[in-house]
Amino acid sequence: MKEGVVGQWRVVGVVSAGGVAGSLARFGLQTWWPSVWATLVINVVGCLLIGMLMVVVPRLHRLARPFLGVGVLGGFTTFSGYVVDARFLAGEGPFWLALVYLVGTMAGAVVATWSGVRLARLLTRRWAG
């Protein structure tokens, strides 16, 4: 097999392994805290970590980005689950609550990603001296 094909399969392998780990972490958290608000926290925390990862990933092994970013954090976050939860809120409670959930999650995700980038830049500057 050519090295390019082998390299692609390595990426597929690390993304798959990371996806399993991230999905199991999300499953564990949502089992411990069965609430639509758990999904919000998962997505916001995941976005914070993705923001941080994008700053530090150039310093890591070349397979770290697909493993951690696409795999672990891609499996951990769930924006499809977020839509299902919003639909549940719209059907079971006041519509405004579903709207707050939809907008709050998106705003929280964007702010968390930006904050993760800023925090990682600050920390890497301090570590670099």
Count of distinct structural domains: 1
Mean pLDDT: 92
Question: What share of the residues does DSSP label as strand, in percent?
Answer: under 5%
Overall shape: it is globular
| N to C succession of SSEs | HHHHH
For the sheet with most strands, the description reads: none
Task: Tell me the distance between the termini.
Answer: 44 Å
Low-confidence stretches: none
**What structural class do you assign from the helix and strand content?**
mainly alpha
Please count the helical segments: 5
Radius of gyration: 17 Å
How much helical structure, as a percent, in the residues?
over 70%
Protein name: Fluoride-specific ion channel FluC
Membrane topology: Multi-pass membrane protein
InterPro entries: FluC
Subcellular location: Cell membrane
Short description:
The chain has one domain (3-128). 87% of the residues lie in helices and 0% in strands. The chain has helices at residues 3-32, 36-56, 64-76, 79-92, 95-128.
